[in-house]
Amino acid sequence: MKNLLEFIRCKSLSLKIYFLFLYFLFPFYFQNKVASNRIENKQKELKKSFQDGKVTPGIGLPFEFLEKLFLKEIERKKIIEDKAKSMIGILSLSILAISIFIPLMPTIAKIFILKIFSIILMVYALLSILFSSVLLVELLAEKNIMWELSEEELINKDSTAMWYCIEQNREQNLLRTNYLYTIYRLTTNFMFVFLIIFILYLCSI
């Protein structure tokens, strides 16, 4: 609740309602928004510090050592990206399954209360898979960036610039990991809810 209050404090009324909705129905999606917001703010502060000449941790460290740390972050990015790509097939099958079941909704559950319950579950499942798909697209497109040294910085073996790139890439990989975890959780929620809908359908045959 503390994260919710902090996050919506400066938002418009419509955004407050939207984030309240996310907080109670899709907590993992909301927590990802909060974490992403903090990471991006930290990256902005890091960028400002670097531009102001306040980033100095890389000074005195061997450039070759920093280069190894840099390559590790690149490797982490590739691992996260490969896992994200593997989710494309799962989400595609999930969308196919739910598109098949939507026309069958009128036949699910003959008791009125159960019918309403199944409709609510279907809406929740649709939103879960929608949020998962949106996050996956963001992860593989908008968030798929890396910080690299300029040609001049590379020639001069600029340790400070290398340290800055490592820190930015580390934060970006953390952001990607949060996205991937949220996609997994939302997809798991979808599968669980869809299983309940499927059982209701079998019981109505």
What does the model show?
The protein is mainly α and 205 residues long. It has a domain at 62-204. It contains seven helices and no strands. The chain has helices spanning 2-8, 13-25, 27-51, 63-101, 112-140, 151-155, 159-204. The two termini are 43 Å apart. The model is unreliable at 1-5 (pLDDT under 50).
Strand content of the residues, in percent?
Answer: under 5%
Distance between the termini: 43 Å
Mind telling me the C-alpha Rg? 22 Å
Would you identify the regions where 5 or more consecutive residues have pLDDT less than 50?
1-5
- Helical segment tally? 7
Q: For the report, how would you describe the main beta sheet?
A: none
Q: Which descriptor suits the 3D outline?
A: elongated
Helix content: over 70%
Q: Quick one: how many beta strands?
A: 0
**Topology order in helix (H) and strand (E) letters:** HHHHHHH
Mean residue pLDDT: 83
Give a brief rundown of this model.
The protein has 205 residues and is mainly alpha-helical.
Summarize the helices and strands and which ones pair or pack.
Layout: H1 2-8, H2 13-25, H3 27-51, H4 63-101, H5 112-140, H6 151-155, H7 159-204
Features:
elongated; 7 helices; 205 residues; 0% strand; 80% helix; mainly alpha; disordered N terminus
